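To fix ideas, we now present one chain and its tokenised fold:
***
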Amino acid sequence: MVEFTRKVSTFQRFLPQIIAVIIKNSSLFVYGTTMGMPTILIPALSGNNQDESLSMDETGISWIASMSNLCVPLGCLLSGQVAQKIGRKRALQAVNVPFSVAFALFYFASKPWQILFGLSLTGTAGGIAESPGVSYSAEVSEPILRGGLTSSGTLFISMGILFSFIGGTFFHWRTLALINAVIPLVSTVLLMLIPETPYWLVSKNRMEEAQKSLAWLRGWTSTEQVEKEFQEIRKSIEVSAQEDSNRTWRSNLQLYMEGRFIKPFLLIALTFVTAYFGLTPVTAYAVEIFNLLQVPLSSYYATVLMGSLNLIATILCAIILRFFGKRLLAFIALSGVSLCFIITASYCFLNDIYFFSSSAAASTSSWIPMVALMGMGFFSYLVVFGLPWILMGEIYHNEIRDTATGLSAAIGYLIGFLASKTFQQMVSAVTLPGVFLFYSGVAVGGILALYFLLPETEGKSLAECCQHYSGGSKLDNRVCRNRGTDKENEHGV
């Protein structure tokens, strides 16, 4: 535990960390609004709306569903360098500019390429935000809060997606784009209210600012009261800096050929597969799928309800994660995802719903497929969707965290691109129920793989998590529920 000369209550110590992460997450809310736009754009631009002058063919629609995911990896590859160069907070402020530009482009768009270019901007900006977003949460929070605060990023993405779903239900998509263009400006102002992370400030030899930042984050207290933790952070950064100064470009490259990078990287890639092969394409085509299945509600209202349940699941995850841990919650969630896809596939098969042609639509409405697909979204957001982002902030060593996070996010969004871009082709090849059964199989495979590969990191310090992959002591599968601030030694962060 951090030793204070004047007692600071737990509430006072934790509150600024929570506030800082919430404000940081405002940039992820913006990103969420961009992720919700394809769901609104696809039905509006698919050619069925006679009042819409701008329309796209099936190929163009598939690019709307996947373009953002295709461009995110480019931003992710730049993400680590940007975060390390200008800081986590400034990087998050900087990405708000292309977000606003993209929404303005949507509003004024008169040609299909302008829509796709706007989506490419949102994807690239979202990719750049990945490393500073994850690193900020990990570096300002104590172990007992880290899992919940890191997972809260998914909560704000969900809120942004839901905001676009609701806006698309009540406003024309151009009006929604104009509203969304203002939100990044608000985020930029809010980010001025929180400090930069003490880890980054120490790495730039800005010691006085780092002390003040840590004091702010540990209960708006004095720098003397956080001196012990500050010295631990300083020591860990100095050790890493000394090691870096002795490295050549060859030895730096070698860092990414060691087990402490490769093993976490492969684990995170696996979690992206379980998260995106199912949730991503179903969310992008939600309005079209609900129309096809003839659900009892308006397809737009059903999409809003689905987004609301996703948001509830994300909030629930942040609350119960510290009690259940990541492993058990992942097994429960993936089991739910698999079951919901099996139910949806069975319904489609029994009602002869195989393709997206209008003649294939269900003859009668039913709550079954709507509840099943909403259940799939709920279980996905319960932990599956956010798991790779949580792990990124915990299991990479400080020497490689920024770049490794960017690389992991890049691979993740490439997986998301493949999941979305291939959806229509997979439906044409194996039918809609066949695709849903495939997604169910992915979830089952994820359960089996994570049982053997996923260590329990909940409540463990960054040092312990990093040592697990660095040849040190191994993590057990026990959840540490009553852990305060552990010593993050030179082997950790």
User: Anything to note?
Assistant: The longest helix spans residues 299-350. The two ends are 17 Å apart (CA to CA). The chain has 21 helices and no strands.
